[in-house]
Amino acid sequence: MTTDDVGYQVLTADTAASYVASRPELASLIDTTSLARVEEVGDGNLNLVFILTDTAGRGVVLKQALPYMRLVGPDWPMRPDRARLEAEITSVHARVAPGLVPDIYGYDPERYLIAMEDLSDHRVWRGALNEGLRHDGVAEAMGRYVASVAFGTSPLGMDPEEQKRLAASTSNGELCRITEDLVFTEPYVDAGRNGVLPANEDDAAALAADAEMVAAMGLAKWKFMTEGEAIIHGDLHTGSVMVRGSDPDGKPGAQPSTARAIDSEFGFCGPVAFDLGALWANYLIAATRGAALGDAVHQEWCLDLVVNTWTSFESEIRERWPNRVDPRVWHDDLLEHLVAHWRQDAWLFAAAKMARRIVGLAKTSDIETLDPDVRALAARAVLSTARSAVRERIVDSSPTALVELARSLQPT
Asked: Which ranges in the chain are annotated with CATH 3.30.200.20?
Protein backbone atom coordinates (compact mmCIF):
# COMPACT_ATOMS: atom_id res chain seq x y z
CA MET A 1 0.00 0.00 0.00
CA THR A 2 1.44 3.38 -1.03
CA THR A 3 1.24 6.85 0.44
CA ASP A 4 -1.36 7.81 -2.17
CA ASP A 5 -3.52 4.82 -1.24
CA VAL A 6 -3.74 5.65 2.47
CA GLY A 7 -3.78 9.45 2.31
CA TYR A 8 -0.74 10.03 4.53
CA GLN A 9 3.01 9.47 4.29
CA VAL A 10 3.91 5.82 4.73
CA LEU A 11 7.49 5.53 5.89
CA THR A 12 10.03 3.23 4.28
CA ALA A 13 13.59 2.36 5.23
CA ASP A 14 14.67 4.97 2.67
CA THR A 15 12.58 7.81 4.12
CA ALA A 16 12.76 7.10 7.86
CA ALA A 17 16.01 9.01 8.42
CA SER A 18 14.83 12.14 6.64
CA TYR A 19 11.64 12.02 8.68
CA VAL A 20 13.61 11.98 11.95
CA ALA A 21 15.81 14.84 10.73
CA SER A 22 12.71 16.91 9.93
CA ARG A 23 11.31 16.64 13.47
CA PRO A 24 13.12 18.89 15.97
CA GLU A 25 12.05 16.77 18.96
CA LEU A 26 13.67 13.72 17.33
CA ALA A 27 16.65 15.19 15.47
CA SER A 28 18.60 15.66 18.71
CA LEU A 29 18.20 11.99 19.68
CA ILE A 30 20.41 10.53 16.94
CA ASP A 31 22.78 11.76 14.25
CA THR A 32 20.95 11.06 11.00
CA THR A 33 24.07 12.01 9.00
CA SER A 34 25.98 9.10 10.54
CA LEU A 35 23.65 6.14 10.73
CA ALA A 36 24.77 2.58 11.37
CA ARG A 37 21.37 0.97 10.93
CA VAL A 38 17.99 1.75 9.41
CA GLU A 39 15.81 -1.33 9.37
CA GLU A 40 12.12 -2.16 9.12
CA VAL A 41 11.51 -4.85 11.72
CA GLY A 42 7.73 -4.92 11.98
CA ASP A 43 7.00 -8.62 12.39
CA GLY A 44 3.87 -8.13 14.46
CA ASN A 45 0.24 -8.27 13.48
CA LEU A 46 -0.59 -4.61 12.97
CA ASN A 47 2.10 -2.01 12.25
CA LEU A 48 5.26 -0.87 10.53
CA VAL A 49 8.26 -0.59 12.87
CA PHE A 50 11.62 1.00 12.01
CA ILE A 51 14.80 1.05 14.10
CA LEU A 52 17.36 3.78 13.44
CA THR A 53 20.75 3.68 15.18
CA ASP A 54 23.68 6.04 14.69
CA THR A 55 27.36 5.17 14.84
CA ALA A 56 27.54 6.40 18.44
CA GLY A 57 25.01 3.75 19.45
CA ARG A 58 22.04 6.09 19.98
CA GLY A 59 18.75 4.87 18.62
CA VAL A 60 15.09 5.65 18.06
CA VAL A 61 12.13 3.51 17.02
CA LEU A 62 9.38 4.70 14.70
CA LYS A 63 6.10 2.80 14.81
CA GLN A 64 3.47 3.65 12.22
CA ALA A 65 -0.10 2.42 12.10
CA LEU A 66 -1.48 1.30 8.77
CA PRO A 67 -5.19 1.50 7.90
CA TYR A 68 -5.49 -2.28 8.03
CA MET A 69 -4.31 -5.26 10.05
CA ARG A 70 -0.86 -6.16 8.82
CA LEU A 71 -1.35 -9.86 9.64
CA VAL A 72 -4.29 -10.10 7.21
CA GLY A 73 -3.77 -7.17 4.82
CA PRO A 74 -6.09 -4.56 3.31
CA ASP A 75 -9.01 -6.97 3.46
CA TRP A 76 -9.15 -6.25 7.22
CA PRO A 77 -9.34 -2.43 7.43
CA MET A 78 -8.57 -0.72 10.74
CA ARG A 79 -8.49 2.90 11.85
CA PRO A 80 -4.89 4.09 12.21
CA ASP A 81 -5.89 6.23 15.21
CA ARG A 82 -4.87 3.22 17.31
CA ALA A 83 -1.39 4.77 17.25
CA ARG A 84 -2.68 7.72 19.25
CA LEU A 85 -4.18 5.34 21.77
CA GLU A 86 -0.90 3.48 22.16
CA ALA A 87 1.06 6.71 22.61
CA GLU A 88 -1.38 8.01 25.21
CA ILE A 89 -1.70 4.75 27.13
CA THR A 90 2.05 4.11 27.14
CA SER A 91 2.64 7.63 28.43
CA VAL A 92 0.07 7.13 31.19
CA HIS A 93 1.60 3.78 32.12
CA ALA A 94 5.06 5.36 32.20
CA ARG A 95 3.81 7.78 34.82
CA VAL A 96 2.36 5.12 37.12
CA ALA A 97 4.86 2.32 36.36
CA PRO A 98 8.14 4.08 35.53
CA GLY A 99 10.82 1.99 33.92
CA LEU A 100 8.43 -0.77 32.85
CA VAL A 101 7.36 0.63 29.45
CA PRO A 102 9.36 2.34 26.69
CA ASP A 103 9.75 6.12 26.73
CA ILE A 104 7.59 7.96 24.21
CA TYR A 105 9.44 10.76 22.41
CA GLY A 106 6.55 12.05 20.36
CA TYR A 107 3.42 11.32 18.38
CA ASP A 108 2.69 12.58 14.86
CA PRO A 109 -1.11 12.67 14.39
CA GLU A 110 -0.83 13.42 10.66
CA ARG A 111 1.11 10.21 10.01
CA TYR A 112 -0.23 8.10 12.90
CA LEU A 113 3.35 7.59 13.96
CA ILE A 114 4.96 7.12 17.37
CA ALA A 115 8.62 7.82 18.10
CA MET A 116 9.83 5.84 21.08
CA GLU A 117 12.78 4.44 22.96
CA ASP A 118 15.01 1.99 21.13
CA LEU A 119 15.02 -1.36 22.94
CA SER A 120 17.47 -3.06 20.59
CA ASP A 121 19.51 -4.14 23.61
CA HIS A 122 16.45 -6.14 24.71
CA ARG A 123 14.78 -9.08 23.03
CA VAL A 124 11.23 -10.42 22.85
CA TRP A 125 10.61 -12.58 25.90
CA ARG A 126 8.72 -15.27 23.96
CA GLY A 127 11.73 -15.94 21.75
CA ALA A 128 14.01 -16.19 24.77
CA LEU A 129 11.61 -18.60 26.47
CA ASN A 130 11.43 -20.69 23.30
CA GLU A 131 15.21 -21.06 23.48
CA GLY A 132 15.05 -22.16 27.10
CA LEU A 133 16.60 -18.96 28.45
CA ARG A 134 15.73 -17.64 31.88
CA HIS A 135 15.32 -14.00 32.78
CA ASP A 136 14.89 -14.04 36.53
CA GLY A 137 12.77 -11.21 37.90
CA VAL A 138 10.80 -10.48 34.72
CA ALA A 139 7.62 -12.20 35.92
CA GLU A 140 7.82 -10.19 39.13
CA ALA A 141 8.34 -6.98 37.13
CA MET A 142 5.22 -7.71 35.10
CA GLY A 143 3.28 -8.31 38.32
CA ARG A 144 4.38 -4.89 39.57
CA TYR A 145 3.47 -3.37 36.22
CA VAL A 146 -0.08 -4.75 36.22
CA ALA A 147 -0.58 -3.72 39.86
CA SER A 148 0.82 -0.23 39.31
CA VAL A 149 -1.53 0.25 36.36
CA ALA A 150 -4.44 -1.27 38.28
CA PHE A 151 -4.00 1.14 41.17
CA GLY A 152 -2.65 4.17 39.35
CA THR A 153 -5.21 4.36 36.52
CA SER A 154 -8.30 3.35 38.49
CA PRO A 155 -10.41 5.31 40.97
CA LEU A 156 -8.22 3.81 43.69
CA GLY A 157 -5.33 6.03 42.69
CA MET A 158 -6.83 8.79 40.53
CA ASP A 159 -9.28 11.61 41.04
CA PRO A 160 -12.59 10.11 39.86
CA GLU A 161 -13.33 12.85 37.33
CA GLU A 162 -9.83 12.66 35.90
CA GLN A 163 -10.10 8.89 35.69
CA LYS A 164 -13.40 9.12 33.79
CA ARG A 165 -11.86 11.57 31.32
CA LEU A 166 -8.95 9.19 30.80
CA ALA A 167 -11.32 6.28 30.30
CA ALA A 168 -13.20 8.27 27.67
CA SER A 169 -10.07 9.39 25.79
CA THR A 170 -8.79 5.80 25.63
CA SER A 171 -12.06 4.25 24.48
CA ASN A 172 -10.94 1.60 22.01
CA GLY A 173 -14.00 -0.04 20.50
CA GLU A 174 -12.40 -1.29 17.28
CA LEU A 175 -9.53 -3.18 18.91
CA CYS A 176 -11.71 -4.35 21.78
CA ARG A 177 -14.01 -5.86 19.17
CA ILE A 178 -11.07 -7.87 17.84
CA THR A 179 -10.47 -9.31 21.30
CA GLU A 180 -14.16 -9.94 21.83
CA ASP A 181 -14.30 -11.90 18.58
CA LEU A 182 -10.93 -13.65 18.40
CA VAL A 183 -10.46 -14.48 22.08
CA PHE A 184 -13.92 -15.10 23.47
CA THR A 185 -16.13 -16.06 20.52
CA GLU A 186 -14.51 -17.48 17.41
CA PRO A 187 -12.74 -20.47 19.00
CA TYR A 188 -16.23 -21.81 19.78
CA VAL A 189 -17.94 -21.10 16.45
CA ASP A 190 -17.02 -21.58 12.80
CA ALA A 191 -15.89 -18.07 11.91
CA GLY A 192 -13.63 -19.08 9.04
CA ARG A 193 -10.41 -18.03 10.78
CA ASN A 194 -9.82 -21.00 13.10
CA GLY A 195 -7.35 -23.76 12.33
CA VAL A 196 -5.64 -26.72 13.97
CA LEU A 197 -3.55 -29.69 12.94
CA PRO A 198 -5.58 -32.66 11.69
CA ALA A 199 -4.57 -34.51 14.85
CA ASN A 200 -6.23 -31.78 16.93
CA GLU A 201 -9.50 -31.50 15.03
CA ASP A 202 -11.31 -33.67 17.60
CA ASP A 203 -9.83 -31.54 20.40
CA ALA A 204 -11.13 -28.36 18.79
CA ALA A 205 -14.55 -29.94 18.29
CA ALA A 206 -14.64 -31.04 21.93
CA LEU A 207 -13.73 -27.50 23.01
CA ALA A 208 -16.60 -26.00 21.01
CA ALA A 209 -19.01 -28.66 22.31
CA ASP A 210 -18.05 -28.11 25.96
CA ALA A 211 -21.12 -26.28 27.26
CA GLU A 212 -19.45 -25.30 30.53
CA MET A 213 -16.44 -23.89 28.71
CA VAL A 214 -18.61 -21.93 26.28
CA ALA A 215 -20.70 -20.54 29.16
CA ALA A 216 -17.53 -19.52 30.98
CA MET A 217 -16.27 -17.73 27.87
CA GLY A 218 -19.58 -15.92 27.62
CA LEU A 219 -19.04 -14.73 31.19
CA ALA A 220 -15.45 -13.77 30.42
CA LYS A 221 -16.56 -11.79 27.37
CA TRP A 222 -19.21 -9.99 29.45
CA LYS A 223 -16.62 -9.08 32.07
CA PHE A 224 -14.21 -7.87 29.39
CA MET A 225 -16.92 -5.68 27.85
CA THR A 226 -18.38 -4.24 31.06
CA GLU A 227 -15.80 -4.13 33.86
CA GLY A 228 -14.04 -0.80 33.36
CA GLU A 229 -11.63 -0.89 36.30
CA ALA A 230 -8.36 0.57 35.01
CA ILE A 231 -6.53 1.50 31.80
CA ILE A 232 -5.16 -1.96 31.15
CA HIS A 233 -2.56 -3.00 28.58
CA GLY A 234 -5.08 -5.21 26.78
CA ASP A 235 -2.63 -7.55 25.01
CA LEU A 236 -0.02 -8.42 27.63
CA HIS A 237 1.74 -11.65 26.71
CA THR A 238 5.32 -12.87 26.41
CA GLY A 239 5.44 -11.52 22.87
CA SER A 240 4.75 -8.00 24.13
CA VAL A 241 7.44 -7.99 26.80
CA MET A 242 11.03 -7.05 25.99
CA VAL A 243 13.72 -8.45 28.28
CA ARG A 244 17.42 -7.97 28.87
CA GLY A 245 19.98 -9.68 31.07
CA SER A 246 20.59 -13.42 31.03
CA ASP A 247 23.32 -15.98 30.83
CA PRO A 248 23.20 -17.51 27.32
CA ASP A 249 23.03 -20.99 28.84
CA GLY A 250 19.83 -20.14 30.69
CA LYS A 251 21.46 -19.55 34.05
CA PRO A 252 21.03 -16.29 35.95
CA GLY A 253 23.52 -13.80 34.57
CA ALA A 254 25.59 -11.15 36.27
CA GLN A 255 23.50 -8.44 34.62
CA PRO A 256 20.12 -8.07 36.35
CA SER A 257 17.14 -8.78 34.12
CA THR A 258 15.02 -5.83 33.06
CA ALA A 259 11.66 -5.85 31.33
CA ARG A 260 9.46 -3.44 29.37
CA ALA A 261 5.87 -3.99 28.33
CA ILE A 262 5.34 -2.82 24.75
CA ASP A 263 2.49 -2.62 22.21
CA SER A 264 -0.32 -1.28 24.39
CA GLU A 265 -2.50 -0.32 21.42
CA PHE A 266 -5.20 -2.75 22.63
CA GLY A 267 -5.39 -0.88 25.93
CA PHE A 268 -8.64 0.53 27.27
CA CYS A 269 -10.52 0.91 30.53
CA GLY A 270 -11.10 -2.77 31.25
CA PRO A 271 -10.80 -5.58 33.80
CA VAL A 272 -7.52 -5.76 35.68
CA ALA A 273 -7.56 -9.56 35.70
CA PHE A 274 -7.41 -9.68 31.91
CA ASP A 275 -3.74 -8.68 31.85
CA LEU A 276 -2.94 -11.16 34.62
CA GLY A 277 -4.73 -13.98 32.82
CA ALA A 278 -2.97 -13.20 29.56
CA LEU A 279 0.42 -13.49 31.24
CA TRP A 280 -0.55 -16.70 33.05
CA ALA A 281 -1.77 -18.28 29.82
CA ASN A 282 1.47 -17.57 28.04
CA TYR A 283 3.56 -18.87 30.93
CA LEU A 284 1.61 -22.12 30.80
CA ILE A 285 2.02 -22.32 27.04
CA ALA A 286 5.79 -21.84 27.48
CA ALA A 287 5.80 -24.56 30.15
CA THR A 288 3.95 -26.90 27.78
CA ARG A 289 6.62 -26.32 25.15
CA GLY A 290 9.27 -27.25 27.71
CA ALA A 291 7.39 -30.43 28.60
CA ALA A 292 6.92 -31.35 24.93
CA LEU A 293 10.65 -30.98 24.35
CA GLY A 294 11.49 -33.06 27.41
CA ASP A 295 13.04 -30.09 29.23
CA ALA A 296 11.58 -30.60 32.70
CA VAL A 297 13.80 -27.95 34.27
CA HIS A 298 12.58 -25.21 31.93
CA GLN A 299 9.01 -26.49 32.22
CA GLU A 300 9.10 -26.03 36.00
CA TRP A 301 10.77 -22.63 35.70
CA CYS A 302 7.97 -21.45 33.40
CA LEU A 303 5.29 -22.84 35.71
CA ASP A 304 6.81 -20.87 38.58
CA LEU A 305 6.24 -17.65 36.63
CA VAL A 306 2.50 -17.87 37.38
CA VAL A 307 3.05 -17.66 41.13
CA ASN A 308 5.86 -15.12 40.78
CA THR A 309 3.71 -12.66 38.84
CA TRP A 310 0.75 -13.04 41.20
CA THR A 311 2.86 -12.66 44.35
CA SER A 312 4.45 -9.50 42.99
CA PHE A 313 1.08 -8.14 41.85
CA GLU A 314 -0.61 -8.74 45.19
CA SER A 315 2.34 -7.33 47.15
CA GLU A 316 2.33 -4.14 45.07
CA ILE A 317 -1.42 -3.67 45.43
CA ARG A 318 -1.23 -4.12 49.20
CA GLU A 319 1.70 -1.71 49.43
CA ARG A 320 -0.22 0.97 47.52
CA TRP A 321 -3.52 0.40 49.32
CA PRO A 322 -2.89 2.92 52.17
CA ASN A 323 -2.63 5.64 49.49
CA ARG A 324 -6.08 5.03 48.01
CA VAL A 325 -7.92 8.21 47.08
CA ASP A 326 -11.04 7.61 49.17
CA PRO A 327 -10.51 5.58 52.37
CA ARG A 328 -13.82 6.71 53.88
CA VAL A 329 -15.73 3.61 52.83
CA TRP A 330 -12.99 1.74 50.98
CA HIS A 331 -11.87 -0.26 53.96
CA ASP A 332 -9.61 -3.29 54.06
CA ASP A 333 -12.53 -5.61 53.37
CA LEU A 334 -12.77 -4.08 49.89
CA LEU A 335 -9.10 -4.81 49.31
CA GLU A 336 -9.64 -8.47 50.20
CA HIS A 337 -12.67 -8.61 47.89
CA LEU A 338 -10.71 -7.09 44.99
CA VAL A 339 -7.74 -9.39 45.45
CA ALA A 340 -9.97 -12.48 45.51
CA HIS A 341 -11.98 -11.21 42.53
CA TRP A 342 -8.89 -10.54 40.40
CA ARG A 343 -7.32 -13.87 41.34
CA GLN A 344 -10.34 -15.94 40.29
CA ASP A 345 -11.01 -13.95 37.13
CA ALA A 346 -7.38 -14.32 36.08
CA TRP A 347 -8.06 -18.07 35.79
CA LEU A 348 -11.03 -17.33 33.53
CA PHE A 349 -9.10 -15.01 31.24
CA ALA A 350 -6.10 -17.37 31.18
CA ALA A 351 -8.39 -20.14 29.95
CA ALA A 352 -9.70 -17.89 27.19
CA LYS A 353 -6.21 -16.93 26.10
CA MET A 354 -4.93 -20.50 26.10
CA ALA A 355 -7.78 -21.78 23.98
CA ARG A 356 -7.64 -19.01 21.39
CA ARG A 357 -3.88 -19.46 20.91
CA ILE A 358 -4.42 -23.09 19.92
CA VAL A 359 -7.65 -22.93 17.90
CA GLY A 360 -8.09 -19.34 16.79
CA LEU A 361 -6.27 -16.81 14.64
CA ALA A 362 -2.77 -15.59 15.69
CA LYS A 363 -1.16 -18.57 17.36
CA THR A 364 2.11 -18.67 19.30
CA SER A 365 5.55 -19.74 18.16
CA ASP A 366 5.94 -21.70 21.42
CA ILE A 367 3.65 -24.36 20.00
CA GLU A 368 3.74 -23.70 16.27
CA THR A 369 7.50 -24.26 15.95
CA LEU A 370 7.32 -27.75 17.47
CA ASP A 371 7.45 -30.78 15.19
CA PRO A 372 3.88 -31.72 14.15
CA ASP A 373 3.65 -34.91 16.23
CA VAL A 374 4.88 -33.18 19.36
CA ARG A 375 2.87 -30.05 18.53
CA ALA A 376 -0.39 -32.00 18.51
CA LEU A 377 0.29 -33.34 22.00
CA ALA A 378 1.25 -29.90 23.28
CA ALA A 379 -1.83 -28.28 21.74
CA ARG A 380 -4.05 -30.93 23.33
CA ALA A 381 -2.47 -30.28 26.73
CA VAL A 382 -3.06 -26.52 26.47
CA LEU A 383 -6.71 -27.03 25.54
CA SER A 384 -7.18 -29.53 28.36
CA THR A 385 -5.71 -27.05 30.82
CA ALA A 386 -8.01 -24.30 29.57
CA ARG A 387 -11.13 -26.45 29.85
CA SER A 388 -10.21 -27.69 33.31
CA ALA A 389 -9.33 -24.20 34.55
CA VAL A 390 -12.83 -22.82 34.06
CA ARG A 391 -14.15 -25.58 36.32
CA GLU A 392 -11.44 -25.63 38.96
CA ARG A 393 -11.27 -21.84 39.51
CA ILE A 394 -14.37 -22.08 41.72
CA VAL A 395 -12.80 -24.78 43.91
CA ASP A 396 -9.41 -23.14 44.48
CA SER A 397 -8.39 -19.96 42.70
CA SER A 398 -4.85 -19.81 44.06
CA PRO A 399 -2.12 -19.52 41.43
CA THR A 400 -0.48 -22.56 43.00
CA ALA A 401 -3.57 -24.60 42.20
CA LEU A 402 -3.43 -23.46 38.57
CA VAL A 403 0.21 -24.55 38.38
CA GLU A 404 -0.65 -27.96 39.82
CA LEU A 405 -3.50 -28.33 37.36
CA ALA A 406 -1.29 -27.44 34.40
CA ARG A 407 1.48 -29.75 35.57
CA SER A 408 -0.93 -32.68 35.78
CA LEU A 409 -1.97 -32.15 32.14
CA GLN A 410 1.43 -31.56 30.54
CA PRO A 411 2.31 -33.73 27.52
CA THR A 412 4.47 -36.77 28.24
From this structure: 3-117
* Closest to 240 (Cα-Cα) out of 124, 406, 139, 370: 124
Cα–Cα distances in angstroms (integers) from residue 230 to residues 71, 227, 234, in the given order: 28, 9, 11
What are the CA-CA distances from residue 221 to residues 78, 247, 283, 389, 394 (Å)?
A: 22, 40, 22, 16, 18
CATH of region 123-408, choose from 3.40.640.10, 3.90.1200.10, 3.30.565.10, 3.20.20.370 = 3.90.1200.10
Nearest CA to 369 among 130, 195, 165, 206?
Answer: 130
pLDDT tens track for 35-82: 999 999 865 567 899 999 999 999 999 999 999 876 667 887 899 999
What is this structure's pTM?
0.95
Alpha carbon 142 to chain centroid, angstroms: 10
Contact between 219 and 271 (Cβ < 8 Å): no
